[in-house]
């Protein structure tokens, strides 16, 4: 039996899963680590934390599985996108990684727009300059930390730093590189024009591969430390959303998924390059060679619910420990008792600014309509509904662009919630489905590893063989009517508050 490993370097934890070639989970391990916020709107993590988590979880799944190391043919790596990892000439980390949800780079985005017109950025990188993406972060370090910048010799994304740790190879792949604002997305290669305009040396960037190509093999010392084999191949892998698409079978036209993790995403596959000229949604290369995807992103999706739980729901956490259940199961139970619309309470999920459709680093979270009658359960439901409204905004733009979706899948931690799936079905006006396989990004990159190692003929063929449907949640007609009214009001609130957000940021 052949085995494959998928590693998902997430924002809250790294999860490593060992699969057999039929897609069955043989062993799984995870390790959490912190996120640091030195200032309001900033977000950083230590790459060394990701490294330690990966090495620990690789060792655990190898030991737990009992698989012969020579039968573990390949490793795929997924990870949070856009993070900036800077290494010196010896391959040592220079500073903490500025990660995807960091919003400090507003001035650098303006600099980028002065260097090249917005339309040209969209034509080359398929997206306008964005605060959360990697290019603006590089410029921020150059401007604000010149000593660190002067030491830089390598720029990597989070998962590609892990690739370097495992293989000693400086490389990336097209899906994750699409989120750096340095890639020619239609051409699937580094943009010499962009790099020249920004004065960023191309040699600092890794070789670009397709997601299922082999990029290297495990270093002997890593193989020895983890109990694996130095013959194990490491493929390109994918950014977290592109990996989740493969892990849920969203690999052909007409298919899409919604994921609710720390951020939230509506992601549609496309065999053609489809770019929003207004720059409200993101077009990137996907993990299927020669194809692309279009996605809208809600910055504070699962983050909103986790924030509320951690700050105000210690009673749920303690009760869950007593019962031996997940605190989110208790939250879902109580939220189910509150009617759609949370009795005139609306939440705006802008804890970390927003990307779709507003591209506004200054907007912040709001509860609108609070009254003395509202309970904690009302606020919890309002949080879930506010995230759903934002995801519906993303879906509306895809429809406007002519991206036809016949099948919407749900994944991520929030996708496991029947309450959240029902909200999405009501707002999308179509069934929201799940698959039996629950490992999403980890399974996706394991499939990519299997393709790279020759175990599967293609990404599409592997998904057809390994991924099977599970639940389908259809719209509730009455709740759909209610949400249509609330969503319309939700959309107006951002416009009403836009200038006030700027005033708040200037205080």
Automatic annotation (TrEMBL):
The record's Gene Ontology biological-process terms are: D-xylose metabolic process; xylulose catabolic process
Q: Which residues cross the membrane?
A: none
**Chain residues that bind substrate:** 81-82
Concerning InterPro entries, the annotation shows: ATPase_NBD, Carb_kinase_FGGY, Carb_kinase_FGGY_CS, FGGY_C, FGGY_Carb_Kinase, FGGY_N, Xylulokinase
Active site (UniProt) = 240 (proton acceptor)
Q: Which reaction does it catalyse?
A: D-xylulose + ATP = D-xylulose 5-phosphate + ADP + H(+)
Give every Carbohydrate kinase FGGY N-terminal domain span.
3-247
Important for activity, annotated site positions: 8
Where do the Carbohydrate kinase FGGY C-terminal domain residues begin and end?
A: 258-452
Question: What protein family is recorded?
Answer: Belongs to the FGGY kinase family.
Q: What does this protein do?
A: Catalyzes the phosphorylation of D-xylulose to D-xylulose 5-phosphate.
Its name, as the record gives it, is Xylulose kinase
The opening ranks of the lineage are: Bacteria, Bacillati, Bacillota, Clostridia, Eubacteriales
């Amino acid at each position: 039996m052949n085995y494959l490993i998928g590693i998902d370097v997430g924002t809250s934890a790294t999860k490593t899963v060992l699969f057999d070639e039929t897609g069955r989970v043989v062993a799984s391990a995870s390790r959490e680590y912190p996120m640091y916020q030195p200032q309001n709107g900033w977000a950083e993590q230590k790459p060394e934390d990701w490294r330690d988590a990966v090495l620990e979880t690789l060792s655990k799944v190898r030991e737990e599985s009992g698989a012969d190391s020579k039968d573990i043919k390949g490793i795929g790596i997924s990870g949070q996108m856009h993070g900036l990892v800077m290494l010196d000439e010896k391959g040592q980390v220079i500073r903490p990684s500025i990660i995807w949800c960091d919003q400090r780079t507003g001035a650098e985005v303006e600099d980028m727009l002065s260097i090249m017109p917005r339309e040209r950025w969209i034509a080359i990188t398929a997206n306008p300059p964005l605060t959360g993406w990697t290019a603006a972060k590089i410029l921020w370090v150059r401007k604000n930390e010149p000593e660190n910048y002067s030491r830089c010799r390598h720029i990597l994304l989070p998962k590609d730093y892990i690739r370097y740790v495992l293989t000693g190879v400086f490389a990336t792949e097209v899906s994750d590189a699409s989120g750096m604002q340095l890639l020619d997305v239609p051409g699937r290669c580094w943009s010499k024009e962009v790099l020249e305009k920004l004065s960023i040396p191309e040699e600092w960037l890794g070789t670009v591969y397709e997601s299922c190509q082999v990029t290297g093999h495990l270093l002997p010392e890593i193989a020895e430390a983890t109990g694996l084999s130095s013959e194990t191949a490491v493929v390109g892998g994918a950014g977290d959303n592109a990996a989740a698409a493969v892990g849920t079978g969203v690999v052909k036209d007409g298919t899409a998924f919604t994921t609710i993790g720390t951020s939230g995403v509506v992601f549609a596959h496309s065999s053609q390059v489809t770019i929003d000229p207004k720059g409200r949604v993101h077009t990137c290369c996907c993990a299927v060679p020669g194809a692309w995807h279009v996605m809208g992103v809600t910055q504070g999706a699962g983050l909103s619910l986790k924030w509320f739980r951690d700050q105000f729901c210690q009673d749920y956490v303690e009760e869950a420990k007593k019962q031996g259940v997940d605190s989110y199961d208790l939250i879902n139970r109580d939220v189910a008792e509150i009617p759609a619309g949370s009795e005139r309470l609306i939440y705006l999920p802008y804890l970390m600014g927003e990307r779709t459709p507003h591209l506004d680093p200054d907007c912040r979270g709001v509860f609108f309509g609070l009254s003395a009658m509202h309970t904690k359960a009302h606020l919890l439901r309002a949080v879930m509904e506010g995230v759903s409204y934002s995801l519906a905004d993303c879906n509306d733009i895809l429809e406007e662009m002519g991206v036809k979706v016949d099948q919407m899948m749900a994944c991520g931690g929030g996708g496991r919630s029947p309450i959240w799936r029902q909200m999405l079905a009501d707002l999308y006006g179509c069934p929201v489905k799940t698959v039996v396989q629950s490992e999403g990004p980890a399974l996706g990159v394991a499939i990519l590893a299997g393709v790279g190692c020759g175990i599967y003929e293609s990404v599409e063929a592997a998904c057809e063989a390994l991924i099977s449907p599970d639940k389908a949640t259809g719209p509730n007609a009455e709740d759909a009517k209610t949400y249509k009214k609330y969503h319309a009001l939700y959309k107006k609130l951002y416009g009403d508050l836009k200038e006030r957000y700027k005033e708040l940021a200037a205080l």
